[in-house]
Specification:
By secondary structure, the chain is an alpha+beta fold. It has two helices and four strands. The protein binds FE2/S2 (inorganic) cluster (FES). The site of FE2/S2 (inorganic) cluster has 11 residues, from loops.
Length: 106
């Protein structure tokens, strides 16, 4: 069993289109996960940092959401264009990207 340095969970929960809660799957989370996995693999980092799909993380209004453990960094409204910065700052280092941080309690 590999010992990963970090786990990144990306919510891919799907709700019906008219759901008042919304969902991350309709905000591009599947593509986010694919992009993150692909970029980590291209850098040879996929054996060190594990990306997983997650069900609802309980922060639906902030979707698309992700959480990075063990630091417990919660990000919301994540776009594919944020992935490179997330890798460089929050995955390879422990730096928090303030604009993506979900600040309020969920
Ligand atoms: S649907 Fe993604 S956090 Fe709830």
């Amino acid at each position: 069993m590999p010992a990963y340095k970090k786990h990144i969970f990306i919510c891919e929960h799907l709700r019906p289109e008219n759901s008042p809660k919304g969902c991350c799957a309709r905000k591009g989370s599947e593509n986010l996960k694919k992009a993150l996995k692909s970029k980590l693999a291209a850098k040879g980092l996929n054996k060190t940092y594990r990306t997983n799909s997650a069900g609802c993380l309980g922060a639906c209004k902030h979707g698309a959401t992700m959480v990075i453990y063990p630091q417990s960094i919660w990000y919301g409204h994540v776009q594919e264009s944020d992935i490179d910065e997330i890798i460089e700052k929050s995955i390879l280092q422990d730096e928090v990207i303030e604009r993506l941080l979900i600040i309020e309690k969920i």
